[in-house]
Write a structure and sequence with these properties.
Elements: H1 3-19, H2 26-33, H3 37-41, H4 47-68, H5 88-104, H6 106-118, H7 123-133, H8 135-150, H9 159-174, H10 180-197
Length: 208
């Protein structure tokens, strides 16, 4: 991606996060960058094209992070076998990495702010907010926990309730002013959850 195209993407997202997607015009994005609308259109056909590129970037980053921390990239219904090898340590590491990303990475933080603003104005944005920040992560953890119960790693319980118990503190802490103490609080919560809920900390074996 060219430097100009990347600058357009980053600037547009920053403005979307500040004022909301609908309120920001292509002219405003171009003006913020000190370029003409014609120059901007050489890289993106319209504002929607910029938005689609932002969403695509987020999905790419999420997939890369899933690979890095050995957790499933797809939903359970699309790749159930990928859930059979998820370890407790992978869940812990991935969750902490997600928290750090959403709170410390400028691109991710602005994306979250944009969705938080626009979820009340657009059904599409509300669905994207749900998919990325609320119902999506909850369903993802629910499927992981259900599979772990089947492997005898996690104590039997209602996986949906466990998912809420596990994820809710992370979502709450993401909404607080950024502070290093927040990450420590989340880490302590995860360690307590693992200590109280898991039978074995690290195994992928169904019989051992």
């Amino acid at each position: 991606m060219s430097d100009t195209k990347e600058k357009i993407l980053q600037t547009a997202l920053r403005l979307f996060a500040r004022d909301g997607y609908e309120a920001v015009s292509v002219s405003e994005i171009a003006g913020e960058l000190g370029i003409t609308k014609g120059a901007l259109y050489k890289h993106y056909a319209n504002k929607r094209s910029i938005f689609n590129s932002i969403v695509e970037r987020m999905y790419q980053i999420d997939a890369e992070r899933s690979r890095r921390y050995a957790v499933p990239q797809k939903k359970y219904c699309d790749a159930p076998g990928a859930y059979d090898t998820v370890s407790v340590e992978a869940v812990r590491s991935f969750t902490m990495a997600q928290f750090q990303f959403w709170t410390e990475d400028e691109f991710a933080a602005n994306f979250r702010k944009m969705l938080t603003l626009e979820q009340y104005r657009s059904e599409e944005m509300a669905q994207l907010h749900s998919q990325c920040l609320t119902a999506g992560p909850l369903a993802y953890m629910e499927d992981i926990f259900r599979d772990m119960m089947g492997r005898g790693i996690l104590k039997n319980s209602d996986p949906q309730t466990l998912s809420v118990e596990f994820y809710a503190p992370m979502y709450l802490l993401m909404g607080l002013p950024n502070d290093k103490k927040n990450a420590k609080l989340l880490e302590a919560h995860i360690e307590r959850f693992i200590r109280e809920r898991f039978i074995r900390r690290n195994t992928n074996c169904k019989e051992c």
